[in-house]
User: Fold this.
Amino acid sequence: MKRRYFTKKKHHIRSAIELYDYLLCFAQDVIFDRNAENTTDLCQLFIKSVERRASLSLFHPDLKKVNRFLRLALDLAVSIGDRRSEAALQLLIGQNCWMSFQFENAVKHFDLGWVIISEIEDLELRKRGLQLQGLSYWIRGELSKAIQAYESSLGELEFVTVDDFSFLTALSLTLCYSQLGMPQRGLGLSETIYNQAIKNHNWPIAAYALISTGTILLQIGQKKNSYSYFSMALELSQKEGIPMVEVIAGLGLSDIECLEGNFEKAAEYFNILWKIPKSSWYHALNISHTYEAGLLLYSKGISPVELNPVIQYLSKIAREHISPLAYGVVRRMQIKYLEEDKQPAQKLNSLIELENYVAPIGPTLELANIRIDIARRYLHTNNWEQAEIYGKKAWEFYKLIGRGAFPTDLDHLVPYENEPSGELFFDFLTEMDAALTNQQNLEQLLANIITLISRLTGAERTAIFKKNTISNTIDLVASRNLIKENVVDESFNEAMEIIRSVLDRADSQTTWHEINKNKSHTLRRAIVMPFVSGNETVGVLYQDSRFFSFETNSYRIKLLSAFASVVAIAIDRAQAYEQIDHLNRRLALDDRIPKEDKDEFRPFEEIVGSSDAMIKLQGLIRKVAPTQSTVLICGETGVGKELVARAIHRESLIKNGPFIRVNCAALPDTLIDSELFGHERGSFTGAVRAKPGRFELANNGTIFLDEVSELPLSTQGRLLRILQEKEFQRVGGTKTLHSDFRLVAATNKNLKDEIDKRRFRPDLFFRINVFQINIVPLRDRIEDIPLLAKHFLKHFCTRHKKSYPGLSEAQMEKLGRYTWPGNIRELSNVIEQAVILGESELWLPSQGIDEDLHIQDNSIMTMKDMEKVHIAKALKRTNGKIGGHNGAATILGLKRTTLIQRMKKLGITV
Assistant:
């Protein structure tokens, strides 16, 4: 098992696959042995291993074997009632169906998985399901929705995760950008993922990113650059043993050789298809460049691979079984290479029929390619008028990605456009108005600006930078295909100097630059557009590109300058709205924070005691409070752990920020994620409005997790992430939120024992156990009892408006003889009960502190006092446990919520 883990960690795919397959075959024999007694742990081990094996299918496919394991694992998950695994397996089966070119089944399983995800509370799984929404739309042929789903998951900044699943989903969607006429965005995204993969030594993902770049470049006619990237991918995949990438790269090279007329070389590359099992060939059909080489070699009778079964399979595919886009690619290639025996008029009619079928999904690269084939057919029949009509229709799409991408044999059908047409200018103004009008949210505004301007200029990487007047730095505030790691990298120094120089100017001049011209083989063309408001440059829009040139005519300069002025005003307005909203939220903060979390007076407000243990405790508080270190407070129930936490907060540098207390033991498992991280409207039944979580409210303050050992294991995993990165997502949300908080945790249990019992994560323990404070129980510092008793007596006499009789020596001796299992909390309760019972004198229990309080016959209490004493006794018996089995609410015959309400009304705390 250790060997399997480390080989996967080092991305040695072939070795990991072999070990997974061996493990799964062994586990299968054990689990499905009728005489064996299978435990839930063994079943879950099998399920987890299947999930991990299936996630590697895109690198090293054996779809029949993986599908069998997935079905067995799904049956096991259902039988043991593991809904989380059931949902994850449905998603993986959907992925397997997609790879098998079974679109209908893929969508069905994606939907089944999403239904389960919507019913359970699992943030990581929900995130994975949301990522698949984009892929699901892509499979359906709903390209705009696919892009919208992906973009909305990013927020204002481009991000790159370390999760292979997220990488592969994003790389699949790069082809969606290309189809919609935004190849620059797809190229920039694949480059970002490639750089991150190289940094992490993740060779499979790096190879897949090279494939994505090569495919997009081939789609837009840049064959020379495409050949380079496919060659790099082929070399890397052969070196690292990644057969699926090796096959796709080889097919891409074969396609390019076919287009160049080098059919023998193309056949050599095409033979690489044998690197994967026949059952996995169908995944190659998801890549558009597969068809050109395969069908062309087949039509010439020189294919080194027997393609008859695949050809027959494609001929039987009905429109409704795959997306309109995929059907368009398949059918166009069939007409082009497999129907030579048909008359030109028949082929033309077939293409026009195909155009009508594909057109409803919107303007796409495939629709433009269909129209190019129609134009060529009309030219063959000497119908110049219709050829020109279809040529111009295709050109309307291709001009978005550059004239060089348009077929040269049809150049004479379209006029040379030196400047954008009036129609394009009108469209741009319309989109600009929609992007900037009524955008009170700065994040949404910045995202709209980036999307719109990238389409106009054809940039691969886009970012908005702003001056930070407080720290005198330049901040990256919005981006696409440019992450923070790129900005601080040495390779970005030249670009950053240009950005800094533009920010220091006060003019609105848009400038163009060439970066790395003499320092690297990669030449980037950059455009920098300042946002000027009044006499100050408030921000900069930076864009660059490797494969596309920016048009620098005077028309474009005027257009961009005008656009920059409007954007600057819109940013100022959005910032003003956000500042107003921020002030409103700060004013409403007291209403959002539960009353018990506010800094109100409590019996434990001051740390009382003169013993050596208390002097040492106060010294530790003084040392750790000014730091940002995480603190773990350990001690028995009732020793005053919250008091210590509040003291740490009051002595810290963030004492003016909020102090948020969370009693982890009092929150039900089903709601704890919502309480900690917040939730979005509609994320679960009853979520009628969005709600910020405790971590969100603790921004610039302290969050105190009392009884942290009671957190469920699933929540512990999410807690680990927020502690590491200070980032989280609300339940049901996709936006990544940030909170700058300090954590103080407390527990009355031995966390090492909890780790041994597998009830607490060891990695979380090491994360929170940075500075440990152990509070000595009251029985070990009896010299503090007189001071504490007098403190509580004075406080409760003042609260209940009783006289202050004082404590006799005999009473003090009685208090000192008791062992105090409830510690300071129990002492406080005893003193309060005595004050309530007493009239002119202080009455203490005559039969011992641990017995029921003695009430004199002539002492009459109010109903409110009697209720308070009765509830306090129940809480004492349960050691402060309110709900659940053997809780105070159960003993009193009340609902947990009813008891909590009465406790608040009576001023009872635990």
Observations:
- The first strand starts at residue 461 and ends at 468.
- The chain has a mean pLDDT of 79.
- The CA atoms of residues 111 and 330 lie 26 Å apart.
- DSSP finds 39 helices and 14 strands in the chain.
